[in-house]
């Protein structure tokens, strides 16, 4: 398993797990990779330090001041995990209208139906048309939508 640090054209940094370097290259070529924040498909690998797992335990020593501070301050990973859990909870509170997303969003915008929190699927063209008409929307990455993960 290969783990790469990735970055989109807008500077969003995220992690990707791949079977091999070739699998990563293949997904890039096919346009399958997207930024989980903005859905940009312009993704590049960032330089990362190599990590060699030797199987040996790290030496134990007295806790340093940085270790003591980290016990009080949540790690970046912990904060990211908490944020993702909160975002998933928000997504669960929306109604999944599936392929009717563009029509439902437009009907709400025009006042034909009562506004409510919805999610669903729309083509890029439908999204652009909605945005041009002043309908506010944002992409939800699949990893935040429990229904799409199943």
Automatic annotation (TrEMBL):
Residues 55-75 are annotated as: Disordered. Residues 58-75 have a biased composition (Low complexity). Pfam families: DUF1178. It comes from the Bacteria. This is DUF1178 family protein.
């Amino acid at each position: 398993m290969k783990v790469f640090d990735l970055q989109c054209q807008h500077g969003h940094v995220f992690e990707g797990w791949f079977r091999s370097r070739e699998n990563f290259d293949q997904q890039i070529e096919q346009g399958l990779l997207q930024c989980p924040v903005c859905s940009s498909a312009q993704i590049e690998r960032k330089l990362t330090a190599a990590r060699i797992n030797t199987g040996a335990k790290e030496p134990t020593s007295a806790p340093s001041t940085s270790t003591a501070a980290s016990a009080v301050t949540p790690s970046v990973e912990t904060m990211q995990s908490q944020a993702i859990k909160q975002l998933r909870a928000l997504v669960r509170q929306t109604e999944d209208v599936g392929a009717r997303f563009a029509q439902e969003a437009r009907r709400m915008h025009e006042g034909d139906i009562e506004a409510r929190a919805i999610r669903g699927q729309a083509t890029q063209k439908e999204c652009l048309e909605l945005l041009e008409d002043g309908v506010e929307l944002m992409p939800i990455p699949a990893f935040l939508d429990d229904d799409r993960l199943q």
